[in-house]
Amino acid sequence: xxxxxxxxxxxxxxxxxxxxxxxxxxxxxxxxxxxxxxxxxxxxxxxxxxxxxxxxxxxxxxxxxxxxxxxxxxxxxxxxxxxxxxxxxxxxxxxxxxxxxxxxxxxxxxxxxxxxxxxxxxxxxxxxxxxxxxxxxxxxxxxxxxxxxxxxxxxxxxxxxxxxxxxxxxxxxxxxxxxxxxxxxxxxxxxxxxxxxxxxxxxxxxxxxxxxxxxxxxxxxxxxxxxxxxxxxxxxxxxxxxxxxxxxxxxxxxxxxxxxxxxxxxxxxxxxxxxxxxxxxxxxxxxxxxxxxxxxxxxxxxxxxxxxxxxxxxxxxxxxxxxxxxxxxxxxxxxxxxxxxxxxxxxxxxxxxxxxxxxxxxxxxxxxxxxxxxxxxxxxxxxxxxxxxxxxxxxxxxxxxxxxxxxxxxxxxxxxxxxxxxxxxxxxxxxxxxxxxxxxxxxxx
Length: 445
Known about the structure:
Layout: H1 47-59, H2 66-82, H3 89-113, H4 122-138, H5 144-167, H6 173-184, H7 186-192, E1 198-199, H8 203-210, H9 215-242, H10 250-271, H11 290-307, H12 309-319, H13 321-326, H14 331-357, E2 359-360, H15 369-380, H16 391-410, H17 415-442
Antiparallel strand pairs: 1-2
Helix pairs in contact: 2-16, 3-11, 3-14, 3-15, 3-16, 4-5, 4-6, 4-7, 4-14, 5-6, 5-14, 8-14, 9-10, 11-12, 12-14, 15-16, 15-17, 16-17
């Protein structure tokens, strides 16, 4: 079911305005973090001007991921004070591994949510894809990479089918994906059998959750990441200055680089420590392999959303599909592509989940995975109404979602408390989204 409000014509007060096919995301891309072109000719010459501009955007309802970041900080403080093991390197590593599959699934759902649509089948699509991956390894002896490609291909076909039914036939996404949610549960049940399971113990795939990047390689990767980020910001600053476009002061660019460097090197230092219970006997150190996978996907999809024509068109269609169509955008193709990406990412998420549990069963993907992933995207700042969201929202929200059961588990709380707290956090996030949207509308954004 599409979650758009009623369409408005270009230039109307309630919708997005698409000026031309080359810059269709002029105002809908504000949710992308850096896609708002309205400030291209407005330089911010001091940190004070940047701060004032940020405060004004907050007042206008553009809160982005700030509520999720504040919520994550509160959770860390509360659980850290409540239990002395929460902030240990061992538990924080477990938290990263637990959040991996949720973050990946949520990243895929961001593409569908940006259109104001929904995909209820993403969780079970991941389970069906992981089942195919496990079967071709166990029964046919495929190489792990070929099996992964087969699983992702299954997810892409599922997404293509959903996208065509939604975009071409015009069936509401709620109905289509609900039907796929029911039907896809039959795939692992038929292939595995009731009560059975497939061991997911291929060395490389299982190692995503149980093995770590060598410490030296982790430091090299961290250095490359820091240098690459610094070069990107400085090149962008130089380019905007040379073209006479609006730009932030160099001091603030330097501050961003310093902050990013501190975070990356700090986390690398933390995860490079020996976190074994008996450090004199065992050595468990290094970044879990699942983390580089999530980071690579985050960087790739962030580039797609913010630096490609497809990304700009996606935001435009999500902001106002009719205005985007009149501007010459192929709305049908954009919608189909979004569902293909979502189900493809669901396949990757299903493989990561199977890597964590060590098996694939008939119930894989059919539990709360989808609900947690949707909650992660919304908590991170992606709007349910379309047109606003980023890939990083899914990662931030996924960390929030994973932190709740992790912390409550250490406190030995009953399982029903986990559901209540998670539901409350999601409701608060949806309320913030609705209030922010109302404030943006009142401000004429």
